[in-house]
Amino acid sequence: MAQGTVQVTHTGTSRWRRRTGEYASLAAALEAAADGDVLTVAPGTYRENLVVQRAVTLRGPEGAQGSVRIAPADGVPLTVRASAVIQDLHVEGQDAAAPAVLVEDGTPELLGLRVVARSASGIEVRGGARPTVRRCTVDNPAGVGIAVLDGGGGVFEECEVVAAGQAGVAVRSGAHPRLERCRVHHAAGSGLTATGEGSALEAVGCEVYEVRGSGVQVTARATAHLTDCDVHRTTGDGVTLDTDAVLTLADCRIHDIPENAVDLRSRSVLTLTRTTVRQFGRNGLSVWDPGTRVDANQCEIFDSTGDYPAVWVSDGATAVLDSCRVHDVPDALFVLDRGSRVDVVDSDLSQVRNTAVSVSDGATAQLDDCRIRDAATGAWFRDHGSGGTLNNCTLDGNRTGVIVTKGADPTIERCTVDSPSEAGVYVSAGGRGSFLNCRVTGSAGYGFHVIDGCRTTLRKCRTERCARGGYEFADGGPDTAYDSGPLVEDCTGDESTGLTAPAAPEPVVQTAAQSPGLLGSIPGQRTTEQEPLIASAAAPDPARTSKAVLGELDALVGLDSVKREVRALTDMIEVGRRRQRAGLKAASVKRHLVFTGSPGTGKTTVARLYGEILASLGVLDKGHLVEVSRVDLVGEHIGSTAIRTQEAFQRAHGGVLFIDEAYALSPEDAGRDFGKEAIDTLVKLMEDQRESVVVIVAGYTAEMERFLSVNPGVASRFSRSITFGDYGPGELLRIVEQQADEHEYRLAEGTSEALTKYFTEIPKGPAFGNGRTARQTFEAMVERHASRVAQLADPSTDDLTLLYPEDLPGLP
């Protein structure tokens, strides 16, 4: 058979038809062929737009796969409108407005095709077509890999999308294909996407990886069912559902995802069975909005690479976990917002760095027959309206078994808390809760620790081998109502024969010990709120505008580069607000900052003004400054560090948390230092409360560079670093002049020159305090002036106000 010819073989039995023939073009051969004929194409390149309208077989020569190239200059290279067989062809498309292979009708078979194109789609199936596509590859870096549209269907077996400029496989407008053992990778959009009512995608044994969007995306009332599939190494989320989408995952594996492994919203429904989710950077399951629901059975979620809860349920969504395992994660399960609910049955939550179950903002959690092990906190019911039930659960080896705060009111029934290192149960800050038939054993602290006069109910509970005592009820102080405090009935401990609450109006139980114990102050507890805040925590005058505060900033001596940075941030925030009011998108501005520089360069002052500016712009509620250091955040006992850090955040709510010498949280010889726990807690809180607290970390330049380099999780939270340079002699002189003017002193002739020389010669070692040194110098001059003037019997006004060069202290 000659190069570039087509041989047509007739397979019928009619004696009136010729049996074979050769044609110089594919178009001529197709025109001559009848149903059932075989068209064997000789090797070569055919610049033709083929339209197959009969049930023929079109194939390349045996043993020479890829030797036949269908490569027209434009248009659709291959259109199939019949139940034909197309085999072993190389199809090249160059038209960005047309598909490379278009299947419009019939039930054709496409076997061994290689589609290399820069087309709208590599293979496109439309309308009533139901092709079977086997062992085909699509390389289309300009458009969709495989598109199934307008009610189309078919089966794709062992196919591969090796590159796509948009989605790897796109299903829409009521289409419903099935993929079996296919691979989709290196797509610029989602790997698999289904959208639109009536659209359905089924995939079995498929793999999606190295895609720049979501691995699987189902939206707008579409449905999908994936069985035994792998989704991994995506740039976006692993699986995304939105707007009434329905997805079932059975025996699937989702892993190595930098964002959410699964994210669903807007009344979408997800069912997972025997599916594993691991190595995810944000949430393993992220569930949002009323009507959105996840049902997971026999699933495993583990090995988080980020600092986010493994399961996040909010805004009225629902999640059900049955016979699941969640482990090796920062937090296991967060459910928040009124109407949100989580039901967990016969499941294991273990190796959790922070909180296994967190319930807040009016949400509900129901756990039955579950096991919670090796967490900082087993279950934390955080605030008013938050509740639910723990029934027949075991909490083993956690720092604290159950925490109830701020009016939360759960029911804990027939649960066992074993070997907590802090307390079995801790209730404070107006928390309530009912504990029925519960047992705490082997606590390194108290069994049940109830403070602040919380109205907690304990009925038929028991404690055994609790190091500090089975029950500790510290009242709320002299202002506590007479009927506050725990209600205790038929409770026992191995240190006593029984525990019974006295009748009102006396406090229910009052002990001599008023200390809250190792757990210290939970954020928002009443005793903490009564403590006076440090002076810098006072809220600034709300009447001041951002212009007025910036004026005070400009009045500071020196700091020109710092002023430029703060003004740039302020301008970004202000323009963002104006854009939002105009209905435009506003650029996201990270407000957390790093201040580097030597002591006394004005870092705290600028932080205070920055908070006041943000408050004047409406970014923060108060704008006050809470200044802390390592000693305020790091505790002496396991678990107390996280609580101290949380308490600092609570005080800074609506303002600025300023952490001085932040590098001390990560010493070079850290070992088992608790500073890492403070950092981990900070990183999480900075994300959870990013709209209500601005964090500024400060310290020496070199030490802060090391701190940020060894803690990338911290570094990623900050938008920029601002360097505070050392003051020069002239700037230090101006500070002294300001101090003198403020305190009604004057510099005599020659004193300014003497001060300039003094500040030039003063050692600039670690003890040098910049602005602080200038103020200390002024104070020393005032003291020496006082010693000199006190010897005068009748000093004049000049004597009382003038500072002379001889009043300067000696160089250190």
TrEMBL record:
Keywords: ATP-binding, Nucleotide-binding, Repeat. Pfam families: AAA (PF00004), AAA_lid_6 (PF17866), Beta_helix (PF13229). Residues 589-728 form the AAA+ ATPase domain. It comes from the Bacteria. The keyword Nucleotide-binding applies. InterPro entries: AAA+_ATPase (IPR003593), AAA_lid_6 (IPR041627), ATPase_AAA_core (IPR003959), Beta_helix (IPR039448), Carb-bd_sugar_hydrolysis-dom (IPR006633), CbxX/CfxQ (IPR000641), CbxX/CfxQ_RuBisCO_ESX (IPR050773), P-loop_NTPase (IPR027417). Signal peptide: none annotated. The keyword Transit peptide does not apply. SMART domains: AAA, CASH, PbH1. Residues 41-172, 313-474 form the Carbohydrate-binding/sugar hydrolysis domain. Belongs to the CbxX/CfxQ family. PANTHER family: AAA-TYPE ATPASE FAMILY PROTEIN / ANKYRIN REPEAT FAMILY PROTEIN, AAA-TYPE ATPASE FAMILY PROTEIN _ ANKYRIN REPEAT FAMILY PROTEIN. This is Right-handed parallel beta-helix repeat-containing protein. It comes from Streptomyces anthocyanicus.
